[in-house]
């Protein structure tokens, strides 16, 4: 199977367009209400109002922002680490866990930004699942209208997490490994 040659300029273009799209959607979601477009859709369906309402409505807007953040993270890591060639390890020697993690990290950093986008979409799905579990009584009234402060917190957090898992999801492993574990009883002590 013949592989296509890597073209760095394609990543530059994808990264730049994703960044412009993110800024445009974030500004639109923060400044423009989707209510008039949703009201038009309730009266009669048309594609123009549907596309605008979907891009402005907080939860679909944040889904797109999270995916764009994953693409930006994937492009950033790919541009940074694409020239890196991992050294092949000797098959007879056992791999150190830090070396194995570094190898996995490099694999994530040079993969397609589309894979990074899919991983960042998982961040959004986890957030929405958490909302669904946390809403009392299962009603959607609590999330039907959001204010600018709520939007800013949600879009900022999910975009940051989307970028991080798009750039290198093993960063979370390294972060969690540095958190001290709870103090445990010594194995020799009895209660």
Task: Describe the structure in your own words.
The chain is 70% helix and 0% strand. Mean pLDDT is 79; it is low at 85-94 and 184-188. It is built from nine helices and no strands. With 191 residues, it is an all-alpha fold. The radius of gyration is 22 Å and the shape is globular. The longest helix is centred in the first third of the chain and has 24 residues, at 8-31.
SSE ordering: HHHHHHHHH
Low-confidence stretches: 85-94, 184-188
How would a crystallographer describe the biggest sheet?
Answer: none
Q: Which secondary-structure class do the elements indicate?
A: mainly alpha
How would you summarize the topology of this molecule?
Elements: H1 8-31, H2 35-43, H3 47-56, H4 58-81, H5 97-109, H6 113-134, H7 141-144, H8 148-167, H9 170-177
Helix pairs in contact: 1-4, 1-8, 2-3, 4-6, 4-8, 6-8
Tags for this model:
globular, 191 residues, mainly alpha
In short:
This protein is mostly helical.
